[in-house]
Design brief:
Elements lengths: L1 H29 L3 H27 L3 H30 L17
Length: 110
């Protein structure tokens, strides 16, 4: 009985993680500018990562695989927001300012 509950919870987490990945990809395609696309992708990426890893940990049971998945999850939770912040900082430093409405890329220097 307990195995069935864990299996159901695992598949719920995996399915929700897949849905978050899909929503993030859709946001990256449909949103109007760099900053909104990056925001949608980074938020859903982090949540999807948590849900998928938890689902896999539940499938793996209490084993070395679960410990490795937890280490991968910790690494991804530190690096994903850092990469998004670095991308936003690079965009701002290159002159791509966030604005309300339409955002145009900076003119190349001559």
């Amino acid at each position: 009985m307990m195995e069935q509950i864990i299996d159901i919870l695992s598949w719920i987490a995996l399915t929700l993680g897949g849905i978050f990945v899909f929503i993030g990809g859709l946001g990256a395609l449909r949103l109007p500018n760099l900053y909104t696309r990056m925001h949608a992708a980074s938020l859903t990426d982090t949540m999807a990562c948590i849900l998928i890893m938890v689902g896999l940990m539940l499938q793996g049971g209490l084993s070395l695989v679960t410990l490795k998945l937890a280490a991968i999850l910790a690494f991804l939770l530190f690096t994903s927001p850092t990469a998004s912040n670095a991308l936003a900082s690079a965009a701002i430093l290159s002159g791509y300012q966030p604005q309300e409405g339409k955002v145009t890329p900076p003119e190349p220097e001559k």
